Amino acid sequence: MPRAAIITGASRGIGAAIAERLAQDGFSVVVNHAGNEAEASALANKINAAGGRAITVQADVSKPAEVVRMFDVTEKEFGGVDVLVNNAGIMTLSTIAAADDAMFDRLSPSI
């Protein structure tokens, strides 16, 4: 059975590139997104059309219950999780002087 990878924030940008590369390397991939279903689906379709295996899972990684559901879906579809790429984050633009700990916590939520 192929190894499975969850890539958070994978609907576009660096996360999408990581998902494509892992699929090329033989991983079944979960294209996670917080709300951009169209881009996530387009990427999963592209991976599947190229002979890979991909699904999309909507989950806001700042919400523990949604993360649990994402792992449950992955385990059901792919038999487990072998790799987690924690790519999702929220980038708030501000000066360093105006930044606080809460802003940095939102930048890269813990899973």
Provide a descriptive summary of the structure in words:
The structure is a single chain. This protein is of the alpha/beta class and 111 residues long. It is 42% helix and 17% strand. The protein has four helices and four strands; from the N terminus they run E-H-E-H-E-H-E-H. The mean pLDDT is 90.
List keywords for this structure.
single chain; 111 residues; alpha/beta; 4-stranded parallel sheet; 4 helices; 4 strands; 42% helix; globular
Topology:
Layout: E1 4-7, H1 13-24, E2 28-33, H2 37-49, E3 53-58, H3 64-78, E4 83-85, H4 101-107
Parallel strand pairs: 1-2, 1-4, 2-3
Rg measurement, Å:
14 Å
What proportion of the residues form beta strands (DSSP E)?
Answer: 15-25%
Listing every helix as H and every strand as E from the N terminus to the C terminus, the arrangement reads EHEHEHEH
Can you give the helix content as a percent range? 40-55%
Largest beta sheet: strand ordering: 3-2-1-4
For the largest beta-sheet, the strand count, sense and barrel status come to: 4 strands, parallel
Distance from N terminus to C terminus (CA atoms, Å) equals 25 Å
Mean pLDDT over the full residue set: 90
- Given the helix and strand composition, which structural class is it? alpha/beta
Number of distinct beta strands: 4
Q: What is the approximate shape?
A: globular
The poorly predicted ranges are none
Supply the number of helical segments: 4
Short description:
The chain is of the alpha/beta class. The chain has four helices and four strands.
